[in-house]
Amino acid sequence: MTESPDIVVLRRAAHGMSTTMLAEAIRERLPDYEVVRPGTPAGEREAAAEAPVIVGHGIDEELLEAAEELELFACFSAGVGHLPQEELAARGVAVTNASGVHGPNIAEQVIGNVLAFVRNLHVGWERQRNHEWRHYQGFPRELGDSTVTVVGLGPIGQAIVERLDAFGPHLIGVRYTPGKGGPTDEVLGFDGAEFHDALARTDYLVLACPLTETTRGLVGRAEFETLPPHAVLVNVGRGPIVDTEALTDAIKDNAIRGAALDVTDPEPLPSDHDLWRMGNVHITPHNSGYTPQYYPRVADILARNLGRVEETGSYDDLENQVV
């Protein structure tokens, strides 16, 4: 390429987040590019008319029609189901996503929750609230002597496994294509018998998979019956992967030791739901995906991809390319 193209950063992200920081992060990494963040829809259409690169959460029909020179739409969310993929493909527009940007922070949250249960910190927190200095034990085993099953070995699952590995537990990975292998000691598929065999050996069950026909209701009454009574569930995937009623009953009946839920079904969890009142259930409001490094990581992906375009002159075979 003889000159660097304009990059148009759209005004709003999902949930109304501003993209001002994203524009600044891109400018830092690509100082030779003109990074434009228009303040109005009309300004976006005007800027997009000659820009080969647009960065945003979504692109509507009117903006796509205006973007006559568009070569790359860099979506800054991991999911792209909301995009007009057929129209983009028909135009020959490459599309990338932000897969992987959530890995480190979600992995940190999983590790924190697992360690809280390894050391029964929730018991200590409760006694602190009661101003009660009384020793407690009841630690089933150290993390290094435990078995952790991670369902989903995408970028988030791999980041979780990488950090867990330092503690030395036996690691079981569950994925759609076990033949691909993975970074765990064992890699299994979703076959019922095989999955239940893993559950029977599991101390910590971590759900880091997307919601699909296969994973919807993956963990229900039968699975809670298979898990050992000292097992702990950690869900950072999607709420409907777990049967909420079955989970609630399993906690009440001491069929498992506890749960850490960043996602629930329904979501938000009703304020009068029994899970709120259980001391061995840790609930966070679907915020494990937040990180101050989100936009810098998105900008890193874009910078690497545009570096590749400069080298090859092509928008093919880019990192995280989905179209």
TrEMBL record:
Domain D-isomer specific 2-hydroxyacid dehydrogenase catalytic: 46-314
The keyword Cytoplasm belongs to this UniProt entry's keyword annotation: no
Keywords: NAD, Oxidoreductase
Domain D-isomer specific 2-hydroxyacid dehydrogenase NAD-binding: 112-287
CDD domains linked to this entry: 2-Hacid_dh_1
Lineage top rank: taxon: Archaea
Pfam families, per database record: 2-Hacid_dh (PF00389), 2-Hacid_dh_C (PF02826)
GO MF term (any one): NAD binding
Keyword Magnesium among record annotations: no
InterPro entries: D-isomer_2_OHA_DH_cat_dom, D-isomer_DH_NAD-bd, NAD(P)-bd_dom_sf
Protein family: Belongs to the D-isomer specific 2-hydroxyacid dehydrogenase family.
Protein name per UniProt: D-2-hydroxyacid dehydrogenase
